Amino acid sequence: MHNESHGFFRQLPSALPGLSLIIVTMVVIRLWVEPWMAHTKVFGMEKPLTDAFHLNYILLGILCGLLYRNVIFGGKMPEIFVDGFKLSRLMIKTGIIMLGSLYTFSAIVQLGSMAIFLIGGFVIMTIIMVLWLGKLFGLDRSMTAVLANALSICGVSAAVATSPAVEAKASHVAYAIATILGFGILTMFISPFIGHELGLTDLQYGAWIGTGILNSGQVLAAALAFNPNVAPGTAVSIAEIWNIMRVISIPFAVFAVTIWYWAGKEESDSSGKKKTLGTLLVEKFPVFVIGFMVMVFFTSMGAFGDVGIKGGPPASETIKTLRLVMQWIFGFGLVGLGGFIDFKELRQAGGTPLKLGLIVGTTKYVLALVVVYLIKDYLVSI
Amino acid sequence: MSYSNIVVAVDGSDASQEALDHAVDLARQSNASLTGIFIIDTQWADFIGNDWQSAKGARQGFLDYIRKEQEEQAEAAQSQFERATQGMEQSCFSVHAGDPTEVLLAQASSENTGILVTGRRVFQVSGRPSLKSLAAILERKASRPLLLFP
């Protein structure tokens, strides 16, 4: 069996070339390219790259990752860089755990209750819509189940968690993933632009993309692309609470969709194939969420000093340092994630999964914006 | 034209049956050896590389699940090959692991390959979307004779 779980320290030497490429890329972007963009003049326009296209180190980092893979390396990462780029996932998880330092428990309760309301409503609506459209388009039952979870919760992560439970065929899963990634990448680039043009606040924008963007990697990127600052009340601090609510719901959604799948199967003997909710929680619950909550606990206890909530005392030096480190970590991680986006795969996505994905994805994306706009007075920032 | 060694890509699906039948006929006519190959796609970890937040168990469980499906597909391909080559002395079947496009291209460019016979939709049954362009890449880059079936 293919096993890709190696210890961090065992992997480190082989990861050095890829890590170096990622680090050098982000250092060049932040120390030279960003300052240059902030002062450059094109066709008489002042700072068009930052003001009109809203380019910042996050979007540039992802673009560099994309360019490395799809242009410079001809569609495939060279072996020497692969292990380093794989570490980008660990970097982002570390960044999210550190993000726990932005919140106290009261802030989590306040934001979390809003997130549960929006996420819960949209998850249920999306699942119903996918099940209905899947039947209408005559889609295979397992494919419908994978798309239902992938489009309603966390994109690729949900597809990965659901597929074995509903016996989805590899080719079906592949098309679902390609559809979700394609849609996620499109929304990642257009959302900051739309958010700025509509004059959305960080809270409104974070709530919108946290609800409307299909894939978690793109939620993070779109939030930081809108506002690269990492502090309480910024887009990333809102969107990631929404995202964590989605992640937590993965095992429950897999359980629900599995029940739906097996209930409609003619094959009566499903023993050994259906898993209990407890087993699913052990297998599918992402451990970084616990790390995040531990960080919130320490922050609430004042372990890092003042967090710098609006109207309160300024953030402590420790908190400021943590935020600076987070910016760099997210920057590194997103260069790496860009390197995993393969245009060859996205170009070939098609057929009914693409049609269904586009209909549901667009509906969710637009409807989330409308709902956030309608309830904007009820959204309270931290 | 006769060939000493014919290589045919087989995936156990209807899509590869026509190519296989043709390759068997060609081998019998040329008295050539026939090699059937199936490729287990090892690129799935890279394909889901963008997913940063899956639990370790969920990610590994998914990769194992895909691998199992591909191993079943390999067995189906071997059965398909053995049925088609019954009574043939010079035939063998091998399972490779790697990127199907790269492995098949290497076969289509190897000195040991007399001709590569394959269906255009081969490996799509268990493959990633980019495998749709496998045949087009072979057409463009193969240095040995190539026979493609719809």
UniProtKB/TrEMBL annotation, chain A:
GO terms for cellular component: plasma membrane. The keyword Transmembrane applies. It holds the Pfam family Cons_hypoth698. It is found in: Cell membrane. InterPro entries: UPF0324_pro (IPR018383). The chain crosses the membrane at residues 12-33, 53-69, 90-109, 115-134, 146-166, 172-193, 205-224, 244-264, 285-305, 325-343, 355-375. This is Sulfate exporter family transporter.
TrEMBL record, chain B:
Residues 3-122 form the UspA domain. Gene3D superfamilies: HUPs (3.40.50.620). It holds the Pfam family Usp. SUPFAM superfamilies: Adenine nucleotide alpha hydrolases-like (SSF52402). Belongs to the universal stress protein A family. This is Universal stress protein family protein.
